Amino acid sequence: MIIQESTFTLKDGRTAVIRSAKPEEGAALLEFLLTVTGETEFLIRYPEETEQYTAENETAFIERENGGAGEAMPIALIDGKIVACCQVSWEAKIKTGHRATIAISILKECWGQGLGTRLMEELIRIAEGNERILQLELDFIEGNSRARALYEKMGFRITGVKLNAIRLKDGTFRNEYMMIREIRRES
Question: Are 8 and 18 in contact (CB under 8 A)?
């Protein structure tokens, strides 16, 4: 699904452009992925776990996201540089088609600037545009208090925990929390 371009002013005055990624941005998306996974332990992979990704793979991924009826991948750019990426996806299956999964990642240089809120609003808007979707789902890693605060502000609530779901390089275990935000629809 293609997301129409919009702009957003960050708290520090910079302007971010929010839109779907373009296929020619495969290399830039890969660079973003490598950078963002190295900035925090709160994402599901480390940078070295992205070695199999190539600019060509990312280009194909962008084309699938843009052409798919069950997914959307908004990105945010500042001065032409990808600084955030998020995704909402759902299936057309009868039993699970009412559920959509979302994910978001933002470069550290843009934390605390309101970009996470704006991107979450976009993901919620996309999901609400599909009458079949009745709930949004996401996971976050224990200790990620910034993400948890954002998700709770956006109406998500914790519904479960996967104990010791994440094992860091130093051997430390972290729990992973599941959250849901229901979409109320008029009958």
Answer: yes
pTM of the model: 0.91
DSSP label of 108: G
pLDDT recorded at residue 187: 60
Q: Confidence class of residue 57 from pLDDT cuts 50, 70 and 90?
A: confident
In sign, the C-alpha dihedral spanning 156, 160, 161, 162 is: negative
Range of the domain at 160: 6-182
What gap in Å lies between CA 20 and CA 108, rounded to an integer?
A: 21
- Candidates 108, 87, 103, 86; CA nearest to 36 is 108
pLDDT at 89: 93
Non-local (6+) Cβ contacts of 86 within 8 A are 73, 74, 75, 102, 103, 104, 105, 119, 120, 122, 123
Number of domains forming the structure of the chain? 1
Residue 1: inside a domain: no
Domain containing 38 — which CATH number? 3.40.630.30
Within-domain flag for 97:
yes
User: How do residues 114-144 score in pLDDT, each as one tens digit?
Assistant: 999 999 999 999 999 999 999 999 999 999 9
